[in-house]
C-alpha cells in the first residue's frame, strides 16, 4: 500500500505533491462510500481510538473530523478546553498525556497558538493531526479546498486562484497557498495592504489590491472572513469600508469577463466579505467544500493510521 511521507499531519509544509495526490485518490474512494445510499461506513479504523481536542471554537472542522472517524469505525472521544481542567492550570502536555493514558492512538487538535501541533508531536507518542493552529496552518481545510477545485475543473494545475481578504491572520490562506502551489496552480492574494504580509512574495504568489482586477484574473475566488478575534489593532477604518472595497456581491460577480467559482472556508460573515446571493449562487461551491471535508479527513486519518511506528 502507498504511504504518506509523514507520521503526523502538522501542516501542508510537511507534505509532498505525491502525498497530496495520494490523499485525493483515497478521498475519491471514500467519497464513493459516503455517497452510497445505505451503508456509508467502512471498518478500516475499527481498532483505533481518536481524541478530538479543541482549545478553540469550531463547527465544521470538529464535526467533520468526528464524522470521518465514525465513518471509519474508530472509537471517538471529544474534548473541549472550555469545559476541562485546562482552566485549572493544567499544561498542554499534561492534558494530552492524561488523555493518552486512557489508550488513545491519535490526537486531532485545534489550538490558538501557532506551532502547538508541532510542539505536541515532539512531546507525546500519539500521531497528531493539526486541525488549525493559530494563524499558522489549517492543512485539512487546504486539502479539501484543493480537492473541491480538482472536482470542479478536473485538475488544480494551471488554475488561477485568488485568495481575498485577511491574509495576515489566516491559517487557511497559508495552507491554501502551499497546497495550491504544490499542485501547480497560479495563486494571487488580494486585500488591503495592512492585511497582506510583507513576506508573501517569497511564497511565489502575486499580490493585487484591486478586487475587480483580481476577480477578472482568476478562475476561482476564495473569500476569507475578517478574523477580528486575531486583530489586536485596527487594520482598516471600518467593516463597512472593507465591504465596499473587498466584499463580493452579485453585481460584481455578474459584471466579470468570465464565470468564476466562489469558495469560502466558513464561517461566513454574510454581508461583509460575501453577500447572501453570492454565497447561495450556482457559482458557489461552499457546501461542496464542507461535504468534501469528510472524505478528505477520512483519507488523512486512514493513511496516517497505516503508518508503521
Ligand atoms: N473552516 C473552519 O475551520 O471552520 P470551523 O472554524 O467552524 O471549524
Which features characterize this protein?
309 residues, alpha/beta, Rossmann fold, 2 domains, five-stranded parallel sheet, four-stranded parallel sheet, 11 helices, binds phosphoric acid mono(formamide)ester
In short:
The chain is an alpha/beta fold.
Would you give an account of this structure?
The structure is a single chain. With 309 residues, the protein is an alpha/beta fold. It folds into two domains: 12-138 and 290-304, Aspartate/ornithine carbamoyltransferase (Rossmann fold, 3-Layer(aba) Sandwich), CATH 3.40.50; 139-287, 3-Layer(aba) Sandwich (Rossmann fold), CATH 3.40.50.1370. The protein contains eleven helices and nine strands. It has helices spanning 17-34, 60-71, 92-101, 116-123, 139-153, 171-182, 211-217, 239-246, 250-255, 276-279, 286-305, and strands spanning 49-54, 75-80, 106-111, 127-133, 160-164, 186-190, 206-208, 220-223, 261-263. Strands 7-6-5-8-9 form a five-stranded parallel beta sheet. A four-stranded parallel beta sheet has the order 2-1-3-4, with helices on both faces. Strand 3 (106-111), helix 4 (116-123) and strand 4 (127-133) form a beta-alpha-beta unit. Helix 1 packs across helix 11 and helix 5 (139-153) crosses helix 6. The protein is globular and about 55 Å long. The two termini are 16 Å apart. The model has no long low-confidence stretch (mean pLDDT 94). Residues 58-61, 132, 138, 141, 265-267 line the site of phosphoric acid mono(formamide)ester.
Amino acid at each position: 500500500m502507498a504511504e504518506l511521507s509523514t507520521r503526523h499531519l502538522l501542516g501542508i509544509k510537511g507534505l509532498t505533491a505525491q502525498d497530496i495526490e495520494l490523499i485525493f485518490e483515497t478521498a475519491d474512494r471514500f467519497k464513493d462510500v459516503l455517497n452510497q445510499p445505505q451503508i456509508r461506513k467502512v471498518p478500516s479504523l475499527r481498532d483505533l481510538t481518536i481524541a478530538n481536542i479543541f482549545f478553540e471554537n469550531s463547527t465544521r472542522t470538529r464535526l467533520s473530523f468526528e464524522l470521518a472517524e465514525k465513518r471509519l469505525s474508530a472509537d471517538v472521544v471529544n474534548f473541549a478546553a472550555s469545559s476541562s481542567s485546562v482552566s485549572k492550570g493544567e499544561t498542554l502536555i499534561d492534558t494530552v498525556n492524561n488523555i493518552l493514558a486512557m489508550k488513545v492512538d491519535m490526537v486531532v487538535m485545534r489550538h490558538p497558538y501557532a506551532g502547538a501541533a508541532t510542539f505536541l508531536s515532539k512531546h507525546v507518542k500519539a500521531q497528531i493531526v493539526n486541525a488549525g493552529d493559530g494563524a499558522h496552518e489549517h492543512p485539512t481545510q487546504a486539502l479539501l479546498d484543493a480537492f473541491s477545485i480538482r472536482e470542479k475543473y478536473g485538475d488544480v494545475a494551471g488554475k488561477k486562484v485568488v485568495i481575498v481578504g485577511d491574509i495576515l491572520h489566516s491559517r487557511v490562506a497559508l495552507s491554501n497557498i502551499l497546497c495550491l502551489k504544490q499542485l501547480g496552480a497560479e495563486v494571487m492574494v488580494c486585500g488591503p495592504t495592512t492585511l497582506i504580509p510583507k513576506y508573501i512574495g517569497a511564497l511565489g504568489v502575486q499580490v493585487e489590491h484591486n478586487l475587480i482586477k483580481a476577480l477578472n484574473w482568476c478562475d476561482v475566488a476564495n473569500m476569507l472572513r475578517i478574523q477580528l478575534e486575531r486583530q489586536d489593532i485596527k487594520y482598516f477604518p471600518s467593516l463597512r469600508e472593507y465591504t465596499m472595497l473587498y466584499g463580493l456581491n452579485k453585481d460584481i460577480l455578474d459584471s466579470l469577463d468570465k464565470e468564476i467559482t466562489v469558495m469560502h472556508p466558513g464561517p461566513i460573515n454574510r454581508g461583509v466579505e460575501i453577500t447572501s446571493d453570492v454565497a447561495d449562487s450556482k457559482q458557489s461551491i461552499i457546501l461542496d467544500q464542507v461535504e468534501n471535508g469528510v472524505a478528505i479527513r477520512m483519507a488523512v486519518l486512514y493513511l496516517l493510521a497505516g503508518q508503521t511506528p
